[in-house]
Write a structure and sequence with these properties.
Strand content: 5-15%
Helix content: 40-55%
Largest sheet: 2 strands, parallel
Shape: elongated
Number of strands: 2
Mean pLDDT: 83
Structural class: mainly alpha
Strand order of the largest sheet: 1-2
Length: about 100
């Protein structure tokens, strides 16, 4: 498989599901280089403290260069009085924009 041209391998990787791509990405550094752009092409992160932490870590890493599409999912209508963790995540997000 390592002897195949990069374009062929990339086409194969695009046909796999994310779990298969993750497994393939640990086979070799060449396969990792081929898999990472597919894995991180489109990311979806849930609005939460953990989601903000994940987003910050991705943005600080070299993985951010692979992101083409980003979706920030709000799991429910935010009601700070009823959901303190959503309130805390919202404060973190808005304070980082100032």
């Amino acid at each position: 498989m390592e002897l195949l041209p990069t374009e062929i391998l990339f086409g194969i990787v695009k046909c796999l599901d994310n779990q298969q791509i993750k497994q393939l990405s640990v086979v070799s550094s060449r396969m990792r280089d081929i898999c990472l752009p597919v894995l991180f092409h489109k990311i979806s992160i849930e609005f939460s403290n953990e989601g903000l932490d994940l987003l910050e870590s991705i943005l600080k890493s070299s993985l951010n260069r692979y992101i083409v599409s980003f979706e920030y999912v709000v799991p429910m209508l935010l009601n700070p009085g009823k959901d303190p963790s959503a309130n805390h995540a919202w404060k973190r997000l808005t304070s980082s924009q100032k």
